[in-house]
Design brief:
The complex is a heterodimer of chains A (194) and B (86). Chain A contains eleven helices and no strands. Chain A is mainly alpha-helical. Chain A folds into two domains: 2-61, Rna Polymerase Sigma Factor, Chain: A; 77-180, Winged helix-like DNA-binding domain superfamily/Winged helix DNA-binding domain (Arc Repressor Mutant, subunit A, Orthogonal Bundle), CATH 1.10.10.10. Chain A is elongated, with a radius of gyration of 20 Å. Chain B is mainly α. Chain B has one domain (3-85). Helix content of chain B is 67%, strand content 0%. In chain B, helix 1 runs parallel beside helix 3 (47-66). The longest helix of chain B is centred in the middle third of the chain and has 20 residues, at 47-66. The relative contact order of chain B is 0.11. Classes of the chains: A mainly alpha (194), B mainly alpha (86). The complex binds zinc ion. Zinc ion (ZN) binds next to helix 1 and helix 3 of chain B.
């Protein structure tokens, strides 16, 4: 129930709308229960119903900026392979994180994580929230967002990288991060070496 | 995951690039058991993947804590009433 409400909240952006959406989805699911062939897919099925209702009833009036990339072809998501990942990595972030000054890092992260999440482009923000906060599986998130599960996987990979980039930028802006020149070779080189 | 077509000789040696792909799937609860043990084996002797795992784990935990939403009690009541109507 919390997950269903969480998804509705991410989609509509307003708690009142989220409540209505969940109530409608549950009613619809209840009426259509006979059409569900495999009860094991109940959760995914419920997310799909929720999403369909959202598209037909709420999306037009949603306060959230309508996410453009939801309608992009899946291919543009799939192209995010490990090479793109490497190119996007904020290398110094990991090194900075591994520094002994953990207290500074912890305090910073506690303060900045919400605003960093908010800065993510809609498609990545919603996907990260559905998976990491609401605890959906890739398949369930795929149903809720109407994209293939492979897209969810690549969005998670990219969403994490983007989040680190934003945090790294924020740390630099706050004067907390200095480039780690004494830490040896960049991450790509460590990777290709192994 | 693993519709990932990489062919691992002996089934137990993975490199850093695979380790990262698998790490991400693992963080999301999407990695099968056999791959989990291969991943752990890699991490046990790779310092950079070990640090990455620690960092990604902590970051994921922070994200999870950042905005957990609970269905309001009023919604629970509303659904209970709805169910009673059927
Ligand atoms: Zn490694």
């Amino acid at each position: 129930m919390d997950a269903l409400y969480g998804v509705a909240l991410r989609l509509t952006g307003k708690s009142a709308d989220a409540e209505d959406l969940v109530a409608e989805a549950v009613t619809k699911a209840w009426c259509a229960l006979d059409s569900l062939e495999n009860r094991a897919h109940f959760r995914s099925w419920l997310f799909r119903i929720l999403r369909n209702l959202f598209i037909s009833n709420y999306r037009k009036q949603s306060v959230r900026p309508v996410e453009i990339s939801w309608s992009l072809p899946a291919a543009s998501d799939e192209e995010y392979d490990i090479c793109s990942w490497l190119a996007e990595q904020p290398n110094d972030f990991l090194q900075w994180w591994a520094n002994p000054e953990r207290e500074v890092y912890n305090r910073f992260l506690g303060e900045q994580i919400m605003s960093a999440i908010e800065e993510l482009p809609e498609a990545f923000r919603v996907t990260v929230l559905l998976i990491n906060v609401e605890g959906l599986t890739y398949d369930e998130a795929a149903e809720a967002l109407g994209v293939p599960a492979g897209t969810i996987r690549s969005r998670m990979k990219r969403g994490r990288t983007l989040l680190q980039k934003v945090l790294w930028q924020q740390a630099q802006d706050a004067g907390l991060a200095v480039q780690c020149q004494d830490k040896g070779e960049p991450y790509e080189q460590q990777l290709t070496r192994s | 995951m693993n519709n990932n077509s990489h062919d691992h000789k002996n089934g137990d040696e993975i490199g850093c690039l695979d380790a990262i792909e698998w790490l991400y799937a693992w963080l999301d609860g999407e990695l099968d058991e056999q791959s989990v043990s291969q991943l752990e084996q890699h991490i046990s002797h790779c310092r950079s993947c070990f640090s990455r795992r620690q960092m990604e784990l902590e970051l994921t935990a922070r994200v999870e804590k950042s905005s957990k939403s609970r269905a309001p009690g009023i919604l629970q009541d509303r659904l209970r009433k709805l169910m009673d109507e059927f």
